[in-house]
């Protein structure tokens, strides 16, 4: 079984979705329990991954490689490093929580909802362990189908607009990546990522390929100015959709940068790193201000996601600047580490924030901040969790949000104090919009009579929120296991930054 | 004098001619109550033909009647898939034809003659055989389009098809005559494609030859339905009875690819640098017109018609690459398109009933609630047509894009993907209507209960997924046909 652990992880949820679908709308409970069973099994299998993966060992582990398309030399190639393992375990963890979270909430065709979720989970796991560029690309695009359905069927009033925009926007970015991959195939006659990483390319080629990759991944992250699909998609998506979108799907973008831009076009990456750094700072500062004025809770958290992902891209590309211009590998390592931790942390925090909003939405059926106020009076336990996640969102020490942001700022400071100054703005703006949100929603007198009728969270909701809270606190107080898990892989990535390929 | 060997090489074709004539006779002498039997007989006839093609496959390319007829890998592959799509059309058409009282010998025999035309066309080794096959296919198709002669649209569509088709045939013939003439300038005039191949090296009239080439490309463009020779496609698709549309969208396109390859690579291979650019222009125009105009269509058949035009643009990407890799990619694309087209039209046929043509996009409203399985099959077809992985259509697109890049036409590949993004919209729109919209008031959407239709259609659509996951063998087959 351990030889095919990764395949098992991908195919278990994808195949598991079929019986869920077959359970049909006539037996919704069967569909729910089946999907929970599949999700839990997947999570358990992913725990084996933690055991099997040796952080001190070779970079890519648990390798599976089968010839897929002989005449093209395309392989069904899977392998993981520490970063993939962390992302996969996070995906399976969130996978359980979204299914539990949707238990009673989704009453319309629950079997299709659960099946789409499971397929999405399987495909996302696939993205995180593909070592063949064409396989990666196919999975990267295939994710769009279940997400399109999820937003379109179970979403809010403007769901059709949002889901079409989401699909076409992301598809637009990735087709250029396909052209770049086919170009690389002409030169290397393989899609194997390790071979492509060793392929010498002129600067001109690298620059074009860099931008082709960048547009694909920047849209997925999303970076300013191609982030406009995200607020729409988030606002209209059902709660589970928002959670997966924020927690896992955005990471596909930054993960892609690590797997494609860094190893394949390092020289172009270093040359154009300043573009990404500037855009990341714009995301951190400007989008922070945009979040401040939102009147819709989901939109506010969506914009805060863009700002937080700005930290991830900043951490990755500040490492370029540090290694190439100053030869400061140690600090580059810190920056890269910080970006990775921020990726995982943001997954839990944003997932938790969207779950909280979902809990309130289920009761009041509105996302407008002005309709709330004084929620803590009727839902004290919910208030407890909400405040905790809000603190993590603004990066309070002791929560997971702090660790990553701190490390990225530290690395930026060595590169250029001005960058650090702008990046550190997030501590103020982030606290601003998050705390103000808490103030308007939780504290104060109850002004809306409907708020007074809101019921305290149920056992099911408590389970979901408590799981998120445990993850957030664990990472905040004791990040060492996560750092240890990704340490070797991050060091490997930083080494690759220094390699000239021209 | 034809030898026995010649006849053996043409066995599948001879057999089909005999079987089609026999069916015609049977139809004339059968009691009306026994007519439905014709349906099963025709399917059996086609299946036997597939068997004959595969079983009689020679190990190496063979020719008969002094090079008039070639039996090689390309011909075999195209024939198998053309016959298979015809069998699919027969299965899907039955409930539709019964509901409209069209089930009779005419449909089946005309279809069989059209297939014989396809088989001759893709096996042609001579300009005359090409013309013969093309006319057999076209004349049968004109009649098929007008099958429902009492309705308003079909005769109109048939007349349009006939007039424009005759014009295109005339152009093709005119081009052939010029090429024939040019080959006589400085050598013996020839109609044989293999002998024409190097005509540039000996002819003293290259201008005449190029003129001939241009006229032949007009004919090819018309048959493929590539812009700017696409005008007939939307009207014919919409006007023809849906089963006939299905056939024109699938089998006919395989034939068109075969014809283009025979003429261009076989006969005019020497002039590839000239026709490459012409095909590239046709490809760009088809991609642009097909994808942009499809967006505003409200009729599903018309939308799929414009989508065909855009798909022919992608197919031309592979042909324009002018090398065995490109041809293999283009053939893969043609096969893929045939399978996708049959599946998409198959769902329309399954949802049509007596007095209800499921042909407006709005007719599919809320299909996921009324008939989730049919909606899912249509979803597969739509995502495949749009080229979203992991479905089959995506890989076909990847192959032709790769072929274009391989032939140093990066710009063409970029045009191709840009229009893939634009094209995505109208396919997603169909999914949106099926999945996100509520069924219309009093909507009677209900799938046909016909068992064979449901089972075969399910296999057909699911194969788009299965082939998307494992397309290696089919690609290998296409590549072997071109000697790779």
Automatic annotation (TrEMBL), chain A:
Q: What is this protein called?
A: NADH-quinone oxidoreductase subunit M
The answer on whether this UniProt entry bears the keyword Transport reads no
Task: Please give, as recorded in its UniProt entry, the membrane topology of this protein.
Answer: Multi-pass membrane protein
Q: Which domain of life is it from?
A: Bacteria
Q: Which UniProt keywords apply?
A: Membrane, Oxidoreductase, Transmembrane, Transmembrane helix, Ubiquinone
Q: Where in the cell is it found?
A: Endomembrane system; Membrane
- What PANTHER family does the record tag this protein with? NADH-UBIQUINONE OXIDOREDUCTASE CHAIN 4
**Stored Pfam families:** Proton_antipo_M
Residue ranges of domain NADH:quinone oxidoreductase/Mrp antiporter transmembrane in the record: 130-427
Q: What GO molecular function terms would the record report?
A: NADH dehydrogenase (ubiquinone) activity; NADH dehydrogenase activity; ubiquinone binding
Automatic annotation (TrEMBL), chain B:
This protein's membrane topology, according to the annotation, is: Multi-pass membrane protein
Q: Tell me its family.
A: Belongs to the complex I subunit 2 family.
What protein is this chain from?
A: NADH-quinone oxidoreductase subunit N
Q: What is its EC number?
A: 7.1.1.-
One Gene Ontology term of the biological-process aspect is: ATP synthesis coupled electron transport
All copies of the NADH:quinone oxidoreductase/Mrp antiporter transmembrane domain together span 124-422
Q: Name one GO cellular component term.
A: endomembrane system
Reactions performed catalytically:
a quinone + NADH + 5 H(+)(in) = a quinol + NAD(+) + 4 H(+)(out)
Q: Which GO terms describe its molecular function?
A: NADH dehydrogenase (quinone) (non-electrogenic) activity; NADH dehydrogenase (ubiquinone) activity; quinone binding
Q: Which UniProt keywords apply?
A: Cell membrane, Membrane, NAD, Oxidoreductase, Quinone, Translocase, Transmembrane, Transmembrane helix, Transport, Ubiquinone
Which species does the entry assign this protein to?
Rhodanobacter spathiphylli B39
| Role summary | NDH-1 shuttles electrons from NADH, via FMN and iron-sulfur (Fe-S) centers, to quinones in the respiratory chain. The immediate electron acceptor for the enzyme in this species is believed to be ubiquinone. Couples the redox reaction to proton translocation (for every two electrons transferred, four hydrogen ions are translocated across the cytoplasmic membrane), and thus conserves the redox energy in a proton gradient.
Extract the coiled-coil ranges from the record. none
An example of a Pfam family matching this protein is: Proton_antipo_M
Locations listed in the record: Cell membrane; Endomembrane system; Membrane
The main location class comes to membrane
Ranges that cross the membrane:
6-25, 37-54, 74-93, 105-122, 159-180, 200-222, 243-263, 275-296, 303-322, 328-352, 373-397, 409-428, 453-472
């Amino acid at each position: 079984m351990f030889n095919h652990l990764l395949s098992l992880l991908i195919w278990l949820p994808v195949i598991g979705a079929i019986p869920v679908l077959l359970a049909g709308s006539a037996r919704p409970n069967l569909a729910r329990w089946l999907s929970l069973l599949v999700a839990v099994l997947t999570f358990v299998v992913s725990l084996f991954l933690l055991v099997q993966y040796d952080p001190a060992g070779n970079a890519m582990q648990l390798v599976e490689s089968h010839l897929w398309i002989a005449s093209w030399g395309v392989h069904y190639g899977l392998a993981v490093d520490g970063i993939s393992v962390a992302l996969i375990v996070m995906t399976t963890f969130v996978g359980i929580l979204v299914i539990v979270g949707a238990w009673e909430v989704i009453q319309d065709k629950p079997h299709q909802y659960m099946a789409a979720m499971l397929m999405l989970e399987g495909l996302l796991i696939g993205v995180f362990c593909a070592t063949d560029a064409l396989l990666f690309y196919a999975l990267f695009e295939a994710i769009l189908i279940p997400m399109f359905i999820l937003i379109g069927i179970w979403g809010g009033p403007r769901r059709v607009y949002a889901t079409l925009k989401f699909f076409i926007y992301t598809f637009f970015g990735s087709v250029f990546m396909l052209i770049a991959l086919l170009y690389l195939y002409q030169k290397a006659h393989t899609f194997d990522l390790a071979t492509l990483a060793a392929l010498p390319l002129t600067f001109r080629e690298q620059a074009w390929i860099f931008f082709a990759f960048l547009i694909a991944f920047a849209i997925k992250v999303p970076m300013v100015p191609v982030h406009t699909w995200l607020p729409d998609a988030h606002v209209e998506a059902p709660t589970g959709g928002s959670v997966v979108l924020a927690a896992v799907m955005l990471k596909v973008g930054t993960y892609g940068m690590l797997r494609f831009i860094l190893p394949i076009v390092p020289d172009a990456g270093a040359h154009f790193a300043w573009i990404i750094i500037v855009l990341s700072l714009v995301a951190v500062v400007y989008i922070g201000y945009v979040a401040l004025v939102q009147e819709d809770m989901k939109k506010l958290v969506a914009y805060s996601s863009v700002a937080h992902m700005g930290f991830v891209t900043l951490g990755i590309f500040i490492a370029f600047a540090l290694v190439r211009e100053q030869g400061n590998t140690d600090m580059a390592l810190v920056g890269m580490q910080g970006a990775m931790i921020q990726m995982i942390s943001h997954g839990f925090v944003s997932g938790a924030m969207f779950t909280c909003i979902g809990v309130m939405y289920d009761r009041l059926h509105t996302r407008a901040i002005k309709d709330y106020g004084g929620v803590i009076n009727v839902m004290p336990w919910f208030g407890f969790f909400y405040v905790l996640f809000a603190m993590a969102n603004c990066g309070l020490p002791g929560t997971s949000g702090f660790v990553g942001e701190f490390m990225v700022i530290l690395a930026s400071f060595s590169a250029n104090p001005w960058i650090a100054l702008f990046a550190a703005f997030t501590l103020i703006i982030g606290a601003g919009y998050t705390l103000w949100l808490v103030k308007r929603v939780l504290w104060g007198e109850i002004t809306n009579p409907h708020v007074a009728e809101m019921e305290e969270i149920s056992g099911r909701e408590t389970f979901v929120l408590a799981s998120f809270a445990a993850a957030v606190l664990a990472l905040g107080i004791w990040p060492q296991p996560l750092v240890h898990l990704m340490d070797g892989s991050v060091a490997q990535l930083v080494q690759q930054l220094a390699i000239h390929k021209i | 004098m034809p030898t026995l060997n010649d006849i053996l090489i043409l066995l599948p074709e001879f057999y089909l001619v005999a079987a089609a004539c026999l069916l015609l006779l049977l139809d004339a002498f059968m009691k009306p109550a026994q007519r439905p039997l014709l349906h099963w007989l025709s399917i059996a006839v086609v299946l036997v033909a597939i068997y004959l093609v595969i079983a009689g496959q020679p190990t190496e390319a063979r020719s008969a009647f002094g090079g008039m007829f070639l039996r090689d890998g390309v011909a075999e592959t195209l024939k198998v898939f053309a016959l298979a799509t015809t069998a699919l059309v027969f299965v899907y058409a039955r409930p539709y034809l019964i509901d409209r009282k069209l089930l009779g010998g005419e449909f089946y025999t005309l279809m069989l003659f059209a297939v014989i035309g396809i088989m001759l066309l893709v096996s042609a080794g001579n300009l005359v055989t090409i013309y013969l096959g093309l006319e057999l296919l076209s004349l049968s198709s004109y009649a098929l389009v007008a099958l429902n002669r009492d309705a308003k649209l079909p005769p109109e569509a048939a007349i349009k098809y006939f007039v424009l088709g005759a014009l295109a045939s005339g152009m093709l013939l005119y081009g052939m005559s010029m090429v024939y003439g040019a080959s006589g300038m400085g050598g013996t005039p020839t109609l044989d494609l293999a002998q024409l191949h190097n005509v540039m090296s000996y002819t003293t009239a290259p201008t005449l030859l190029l003129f001939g080439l241009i006229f032949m490309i007009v004919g090819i463009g018309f048959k493929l339905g590539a812009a700017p020779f696409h005008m007939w496609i939307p009207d014919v698709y919409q006007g023809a009875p849906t089963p006939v549309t299905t056939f024109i969208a699938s089998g006919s396109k395989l034939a068109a690819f075969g014809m283009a390859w025979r003429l261009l690579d076989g006969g005019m291979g020497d002039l590839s640098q000239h026709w490459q650019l012409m095909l590239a222009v046709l490809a760009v125009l088809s991609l642009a017109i097909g994808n942009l105009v499809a967006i505003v269509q409200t009729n599903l058949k018309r939308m799929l018609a414009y989508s065909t035009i855009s798909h022919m643009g992608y197919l031309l990407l592979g042909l324009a690459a002018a090398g065995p890799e490109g041809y293999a990619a283009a053939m893969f694309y043609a096969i893929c398109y045939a399978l996708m087209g049959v599946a998409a039209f198959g769902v329309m046929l399954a949802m049509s009933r007596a007095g209800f043509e499921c042909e407006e996009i709005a007719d599919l409203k809320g299909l996921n609630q009324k008939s989730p399985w049919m909606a899912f099959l249509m979803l597969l077809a739509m995502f495949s047509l749009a080229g979203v992985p992991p479905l089959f259509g995506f890989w076909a697109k990847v192959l032709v894009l790769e072929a274009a890049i391989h032939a140093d036409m990066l710009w063409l590949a970029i045009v191709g993907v840009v229009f893939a993004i634009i094209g995505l919209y109208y396919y997603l729109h169909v999914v949106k209507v099926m999945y996100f919209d509520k069924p219309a008031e009093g909507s009677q959407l209900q799938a046909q209960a016909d068992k064979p239709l449901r089972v075969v259609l399910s296999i057909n659509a699911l194969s788009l997924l299965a082939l998307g996951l494992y397309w290696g063998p089919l690609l290998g087959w296409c590549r072997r046909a071109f000697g790779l």
